[in-house]
């Protein structure tokens, strides 16, 4: 909205320097700064409100005993990130762009799913199984809507995306695309649901999920900008997606909001994002990979999230197998997800988070390198 006002002023009155607002790079920077300011402003207010209504994290049975001290810490702090993402995107992005509206829909819809999840769990004290069922229905529904819009109504997003509506690019192979046809819709559902739950699982240490989302968001900002530039996409021999560059403004806001939230969520955390934030942020990462046609890059780009999920799958599968075969369940890890395993080994929480950040940055570099190493 602010973008249109400034553009109108530029076209009508031609004031010096106002032409800069047309550039995606400038608006991305403005969105990141705006998101950071909103998160800093909103954070203390949300934390006070959560404390007032005694909306705090319950003690987790499946976490190390050191986490008992975290019980009562305000949760649902994902509202800080959501506010920090949605407002700057509405202010600085081109709202005539279909990509922007689709990613805003994913953010808001999964934010509502996560909010209801937290509300039922923390406030209403509902059964966990019931909550998981509702959560999965919400994630699948969002995935179905996104996949169906891309496949059946690509013109809503962009006039050129119909060429790639059911295909995805293959990392490390120049010009290679995999067309899945109607099966592309189930793939989108799987990606959004899987990434949403992956970030939710990762959100177990102070600052871990928020920092990782910021690193992934920065990478996606670069990729979306390149995909939306005809010259750069041609040089790198990747699909040119007209209008895709506007997603870099959203991604920049995501980075700024994540950093702003990290100010309050860093060890020792003043607030947790809860499912309100983790479900939305995870789904957003999956949806962004879908919209920039880099779905198969997700295991590399989100490698830390993948490791967390795989550790849980391995632990549960092996435990059930050994219990059935030997009458006693055995473990591969001391505790899952993976970050809890390192805690049980005696690693301090800040060290685990920092080392996971380092791994994520290395994976970010590898992900960007796939555009040249082909």
Topology:
Elements: H1 2-13, H2 24-52, H3 78-92, H4 98-123, H5 128-152, H6 154-157, E1 167-169, E2 177-179, H7 184-202, H8 208-227, H9 230-235, H10 247-265, H11 274-291, H12 298-301, H13 303-326, H14 338-344, H15 349-369
Antiparallel strand pairs: 1-2
Provide an overview of this structure.
There is one protein chain. The protein is mostly helical and 374 residues long. It has one domain. Helices cover 67% and strands 2% of the residues. The protein contains 15 helices and two strands. Strands 1-2 form a two-stranded antiparallel sheet. A hairpin with a 7-residue loop joins strand 1 and strand 2. The longest helix is centred in the N-terminal third of the chain and has 29 residues. The two termini are 40 Å apart.
Count of the domains: 1
The average pLDDT is: 91
Number of strands: 2
Structural class: mainly alpha
**Helical stretch count?**
15
Shape estimate: globular
Mind telling me the C-alpha Rg? Answer: 21 Å
User: Strand order of the main beta sheet, please?
Assistant: 1-2
Distance between the termini: 40 Å
Order of helices and strands: HHHHHHEEHHHHHHHHH
* Oligomerization state: single chain
Could you name the ranges where pLDDT drops below 50 across 5 or more consecutive residues? none
Percentage of residues assigned to helices: 55-70%
| Major pleated sheet | 2 strands, antiparallel
Q: Quote the beta fraction.
A: under 5%
């Amino acid at each position: 909205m602010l973008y249109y006002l400034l553009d109108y002023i530029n076209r009508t009155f031609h004031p010096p320097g106002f032409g800069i607002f047309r550039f995606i790079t400038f608006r991305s920077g403005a969105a990141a700064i705006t998101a950071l300011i909103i998160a800093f402003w909103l954070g203390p207010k949300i934390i006070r409100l959560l404390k007032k209504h005694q909306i705090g994290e319950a003690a987790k049975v499946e976490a190390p005993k050191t986490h008992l001290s975290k019980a009562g810490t305000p949760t649902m702090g994902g509202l800080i990130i959501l506010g920090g993402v949605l407002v700057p995107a509405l202010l600085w992005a081109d709202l005539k762009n279909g990509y922007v509206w689709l990613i805003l829909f994913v953010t808001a819809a999964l934010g509502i799913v996560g909010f209801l999840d937290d509300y039922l769990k923390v406030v209403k004290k509902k059964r966990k199984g019931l909550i998981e069922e509702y959560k999965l229905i919400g994630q699948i529904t969002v995935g179905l809507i996104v996949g169906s819009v891309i496949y059946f109504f690509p013109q809503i997003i962009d006039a050129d995306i119909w060429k790639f509506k059911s295909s995805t690019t293959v990392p490390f192979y120049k010009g290679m695309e995999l067309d899945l046809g109607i099966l592309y819709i189930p793939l989108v559902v799987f990606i959004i649901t899987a990434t949403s739950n992956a970030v939710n699982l990762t959100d177990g240490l102070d600052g871990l999920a928020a920092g990782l989302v910021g690193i992934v968001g920065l990478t996606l900002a670069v990729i979306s900008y390149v995909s939306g530039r005809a010259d750069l996409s041609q040089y790198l021999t990747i699909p040119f997606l007209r209008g895709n560059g506007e997603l870099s403004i959203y991604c920049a806001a995501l980075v700024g909001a994540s950093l702003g939230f990290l100010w309050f969520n860093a060890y020792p955390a003043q607030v947790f994002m809860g499912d309100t934030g983790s479900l939305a942020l995870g789904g957003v990462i999956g949806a962004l990979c879908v919209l920039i046609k880099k779905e198969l890059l997700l295991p590399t780009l989100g490698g830390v999230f993948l490791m967390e999920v795989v550790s849980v799958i391995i632990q549960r599968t092996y435990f059930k197998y050994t219990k059935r075969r030997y009458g006693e369940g055995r473990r591969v890890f001391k505790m899952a997800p993976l970050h809890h395993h390192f805690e049980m080994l005696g690693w301090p929480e800040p060290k685990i988070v920092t080392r996971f950040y380092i791994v994520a940055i290395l994976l970010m570099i590898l992900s960007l390198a796939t555009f040249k190493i082909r």
